[in-house]
Design goal:
mainly alpha, 5 helices, elongated
């Protein structure tokens, strides 16, 4: 066995880089969904000009801004904190909290997938790391 046989080959393309695109897409979809809650706040929450309305607008903007920092290690806790911000609406406006619960489940799944891909990449088990058949 040569020295290179035991080494793990790096993948041809970085799968975590493309996975950031998936997470950015999820953030944009969530921001759109949160913004679509504004008519609900206008009808049931006292209006968009209230604290509830401004908080939802701030969370939607923060979700879009998070797309630019996904490569930073602190981005995942920030995204999860935004989910908790939506869930905090549970007593004030349960319809908005439901959005938080749904997207919290999605984000926990996405973070688990990212961890699994990183683990497989470290072990050399990704399809792009396999030796071509001769």
């Amino acid at each position: 066995m040569t020295e290179q046989e035991g080494a793990v080959r790096p993948p041809a393309k970085d799968p975590l880089k493309s996975f950031r695109g998936v997470m950015a897409g999820a953030l944009i979809m969530e921001a759109i969904t949160v913004a679509l809650a504004l008519p609900v706040i206008a009808k049931l929450g006292g209006g968009i000009g209230t604290g509830k309305g401004w908080a939802v607008i701030a969370i939607a903007v923060a979700l879009v801004l998070c797309c630019g920092v996904l490569k930073r290690p602190w981005s995942a806790p920030v995204v999860l904190a935004l989910q908790l911000g939506l869930i905090a609406f549970f007593f004030a406006l349960p319809a908005v909290a439901v959005i938080g619960f749904v997207f919290l489940a999605i984000w926990l799944w996405l973070l688990w997938l990212r961890k699994d891909v990183a683990k497989r990449m470290a072990e050399g088990r990704l399809p792009s790391q396999q030796q071509p058949a001769e």
